[in-house]
Recover the amino acids of this structure.
């Protein structure tokens, strides 16, 4: 059977892709048998290189350090300039911006006097044409090919009068104005990057049956950390349920929950270590042509409920949008590999550890959240793209600030000195040069003293480790860099 009912013809290739997405392998028993046979053959041939532990550990591990809960909320299809281009202090369109309309005229950015627009072309070929070799001026002409009467739509933007709740969060916490989608393309490949650090070669909104992509969820189970994926039941099944190896594990599938269950879990204070929230198949997703208002009210309410819960003092929330949706953004995406990055999308980092009212200008993408989780909890990076991603740690109070991430500390109970000292001890013991700056600044912020590691015959700290501890304890700088690994591609 197919998951999607027919909704009539469409002239927009992006819409056709979206309506065709995620066709289930149950359409044909022969196809199902073939997929299983191929998968079995790969395992027998020794090509199944990742062997996650499918059995739920008898006891769940508690994440180390101050971050006990990470929540990622992924909305849909709005570029940064569309939602926050007019936000005070953010990198919005320069004065005089105007794009050609293909008819000899131009279209300048304009305020949308409403709460919705038509859907826009956002399939990969259209987005490559939007970039137009780096000129970033193809958006209007691409929309004109789909609907000439709505050609100006990509240049529209919303402001605080329509997005008071989201702008309020951005003013209260940290807004990232150089956070990018991971792929020039639509929803599915970008969400795959957010879960697995890659798209398994998928560049459209059609997911082939039996797609093999180990995810952060497989990794969390393998290393004994709890997780849940909350989704809106509807036209599309939850994306992780279509990915191998997760789809082969009934224990992991049990961690996929309807969105309606989330409020009671928050109220009870029983969120797992990692929570991914996906309202895609609902009116809350903000996907055009839906109104932006229901989704904004819902997501702001969700954040406020987390803020009021007993989990708040150990929680980091990453609120973002999967891709730009065809709306104009003036910043040329970095070239990190053959597929991306994609266009800028909003990212708000919400936590008691956030630097209040700051704008973070570091370069990030969806794999940066994976990098943050794996780095904070001592997990191996899923792949090189994750390892080289910008580290969102720079947006948090425990870390040195970047040039424009200098807002005052968000009011909260600071981490205890014992927690900070434990962070340093663990980092020194592991000779971990990436976590040492996090731990040392945490200790300095609350008056803790980094412990001196007893040097045994087995191993001494590297000179790099000693230098980091010494420099940070002498003069913790609010302008220091958060240690991250960056690729040679300008990441």
């Amino acid at each position: 059977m197919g998951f999607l009912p027919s909704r009539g013809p469409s002239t927009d290739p992006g819409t056709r892709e979206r309506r065709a997405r995620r066709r289930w392998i149950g359409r044909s028993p022969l196809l199902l048998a073939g997929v299983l046979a191929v998968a079995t053959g790969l395992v027998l041939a020794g090509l199944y290189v990742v062997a996650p532990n499918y059995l739920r550990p008898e006891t769940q591990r508690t994440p180390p350090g101050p971050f006990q809960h990470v929540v990622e909320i992924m909305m849909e299809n709005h570029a940064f300039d569309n939602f926050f281009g007019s936000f005070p202090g953010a990198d919005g369109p320069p004065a005089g911006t105007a794009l050609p309309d293909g008819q000899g005229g131009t279209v300048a950015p304009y305020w949308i006097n409403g709460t919705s627009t038509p859907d826009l072309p956002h399939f990969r070929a259209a987005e490559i044409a939007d970039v137009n070799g780096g000129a970033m001026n193809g958006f209007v002409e691409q929309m004109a090919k789909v609907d000439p009467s709505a050609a100006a739509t990509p240049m529209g933007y919303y402001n605080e009068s329509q997005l008071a709740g989201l702008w309020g969060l951005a003013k209260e916490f940290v807004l990232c104005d150089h956070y990018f989608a991971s792929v020039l393309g639509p929803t599915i490949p970008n969400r795959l990057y957010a879960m697995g650090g890659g798209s398994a070669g998928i560049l459209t909104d059609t997911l082939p049956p039996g797609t093999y992509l180990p995810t952060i969820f497989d990794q969390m189970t393998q290393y004994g950390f709890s997780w849940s994926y909350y989704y809106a039941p509807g036209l599309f099944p939850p994306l992780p349920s279509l990915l191998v190896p997760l789809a082969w594990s009934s224990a992991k599938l049990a961690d996929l929950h309807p969105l309606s269950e989330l409020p009671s879990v928050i109220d009870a204070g029983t969120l797992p270590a990692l929570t991914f929230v996906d309202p895609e198949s609902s009116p809350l997703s903000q996907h055009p042509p839906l109104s932006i208002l229901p989704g904004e009210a819902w997501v702001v309410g969700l954040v406020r409920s987390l803020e009021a819960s007993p989990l708040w003092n150990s929680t980091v929330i990453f609120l973002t949008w999967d891709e730009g949706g065809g709306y104009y953004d003036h910043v040329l995406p970095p070239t990190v590999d053959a597929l991306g990055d994609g266009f800028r999308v909003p990212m708000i980092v919400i936590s008691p550890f956030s630097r209040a009212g700051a704008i973070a200008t570091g370069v990030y993408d969806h794999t940066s959240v994976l990098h943050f989780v794996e780095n904070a909890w001592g997990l191996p990076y899923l792949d090189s793209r994750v390892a080289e991603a910008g580290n969102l740690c720079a947006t948090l109070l425990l870390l040195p600030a970047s040039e424009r991430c200098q807002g005052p500390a968000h009011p909260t109970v600071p981490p205890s000195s014992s927690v900070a000292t434990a962070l340093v001890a663990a980092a020194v013991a592991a000779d971990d040069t990436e976590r040492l700056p996090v731990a040392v600044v945490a200790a300095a912020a609350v008056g803790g003293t980094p412990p001196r590691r007893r040097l045994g015959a087995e191993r001494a700290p590297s000179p790099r480790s000693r230098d980091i501890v010494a420099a940070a304890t002498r003069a913790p700088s609010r302008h220091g860099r958060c240690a991250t690994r960056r690729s040679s591609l300008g990441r």
Notes: The longest strand covers residues 69-75. The CA atoms of residues 5 and 235 lie 8 Å apart. Confidence is low (pLDDT under 50) at residues 1-58, 399-491. The first helix runs from residue 13 to 20.
